[in-house]
Amino acid sequence: MSETEEAAFDQLVSYALDELPEDIRGLMTNVAVTVEDEPPPGRNLLGLYQGVPWGRRGPGYAGALPDKITIYRLPLERVSGGDPEQLRFLVRRTVFHEIAHHFGISDQRLVDIDRY
């Protein structure tokens, strides 16, 4: 994959982040959003949140390393089947999904509110 194609994917992630409501963006503290090609071996993932969810951060949280949201480029490209609009939709959905985890919303809760 060319650097141009990788940059275009990174831009899709940036667009998804830009679409977040301002109040949600303002609450996203100490979290880094990154792009990697593939998830860890044996894991079938489009994205992954690692860290301490926002609502569970107590007084001892100060000075902690940033939480990390990783978006996996190649699985998303495979699932999209080469359709650029489908890829944009899937990237946005994955970014929002992982941000929900950053705020402590579980997969089950996302199912319950019809957002999974």
Question: Can you offer a commentary on this structure?
Answer:
The chain has 116 residues and is of the alpha+beta class. The relative contact order is 0.19. Helices cover 47% and strands 14% of the residues. The chain has one domain: Zincin-like (2-Layer Sandwich), CATH 3.30.2010. It has helices at 3-18, 22-27, 73-80, 84-102, 107-112; strands spanning 31-36, 47-50, 67-72.
Task: Provide key terms for this protein.
116 residues, 3 strands, 47% helix, Zincin-like, 3-stranded mixed β-sheet, alpha+beta
Could you outline the blueprint of secondary structure elements for this entry?
Elements: H1 3-18, H2 22-27, E1 31-36, E2 47-50, E3 67-72, H3 73-80, H4 84-102, H5 107-112
Parallel strand pairs: 1-3
Antiparallel strand pairs: 2-3
Helix pairs in contact: 1-4, 3-4
- Coarse shape: globular
pLDDT averaged over residues? 87
Uncertain residue ranges: none
- Counting DSSP E segments of at least 2 residues, the number of strands comes to 3
Report the CATH architecture.
Answer: 2-Layer Sandwich
